[in-house]
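Our preliminary data section would be incomplete without showing what the modeling component actually yields. Below, a chain of 313 amino acids is followed by its predicted structure, encoded as C-alpha cells that our downstream tools consume directly.
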Amino acid sequence: MLDISIVIPLYNEEESLPELVEWIDRVCTEHKYAYEVVMIDDGSRDNSWEVVKQLAAKYPAIKAIKFQRNYGKSPALYEGFKAASGKVVITMDADLQDSPDEIPELYRMITEDGYDLVSGWKKVRYDNAVTKNLPSKLYNAVNRRISGIKLHDMNCGLKAYRRKVIKSIEVYGEMHRFIPVLAKHAGFNRIGEKVVQHRPRKYGASKFGWERFINGFLDLLSVQFVSRFGKKPMHLFGALGSFIFLVGFILIAYLVIDKLNNNIPLTNKPVFYISLTIMILGTMCFFTGFVAELVVRNASDRNAYLTEEKIGL
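Predicted structure:
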C-alpha cells in the first residue's frame, strides 16, 4: 500500500499545476514517501487537462480523472476518494494557496499521533477581510455550535485522513465543507487540527462567492439531518407528525367537552378550525415519513458522474 494519496480537485488551474506538482514531488521524494497524486479536473474550460496529461508523462505518480462537465468540488472529492489507495489521504486545492510543505506533519499526525482526521487551520489569511475572512469566522462559529466539532476552519481544503475514513463516508452535493461532521457521525472521533500556512493567490481568481455561506448553512442542516435520520426518516417525521396530531386532537377533545357542558356550537369557535388544520398537518407529516422511508429503501446511487477521460486508473 502507498504511504500517501494526495487528492487534488481542480477547475481552470492550468497556470498553477506545474509548480504544484513539482513541489509535491520534491517534498515526497525528500521524505521517501511512496505516493500518488489523484487529480480530478472538474470540467475545466481552459487547458488544465492538457497540462495534466503533460505532467502525467513526466511524473508516474500522477493519476487523473476528467469530468465531462462541471459538477462541483464534492463530486470531485468523491471520485478522488474512490481512486485513492494510500494509507493516508491528503486533500489540497490546486491554486497554490495550500502549501505541500505541510504534508510531512499531517502524515505524522495521522500515523503517529493516531488522529482519524486532521483539518488545516489557516490562522493567518490573505483573503479580503470583509468579504471572506469575517464571514468565514462567523460561519465556522455557527458550525462549531451546531456540530459540536471544535475546528476553527472546517472548510479548509488542506486535510489529512486515515484511509478508512474516506472509504466510510459519502461526499455528495456540497458536503465537502462538512467532511469532519460526516466522519464524526461515522464513528471517527479523533479529529484534530493543525495551523497551516495560507499563501496569497498567485494565479487566477477565487471560484467561490458570498452565496457559499448561505448554501453552507443549509448544507450543515442537511448533513445533520441525513447523519441522524437518513436511514430512518420515519423516526423524525413520525414523531413530529404524531406530536402535532396529538396537539390538535387534545384541542378538539376540549372543544367537544365544552360543547357538551355548555351547549356552544363548535363551528362558532375559530380554534375549532385551527385544531382541524393542526391534525391535518400532523397526518401529512406522518405520511411524509412513510414516503421518505420508501425513497430511502429504493434510492439509486446518487453519485454517478460522466467522465471524459482517465489517466492511470
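Residues 233-298 form one domain. The radius of gyration is 25 Å. Preliminary results of this kind motivate Aim 1 of the renewal.
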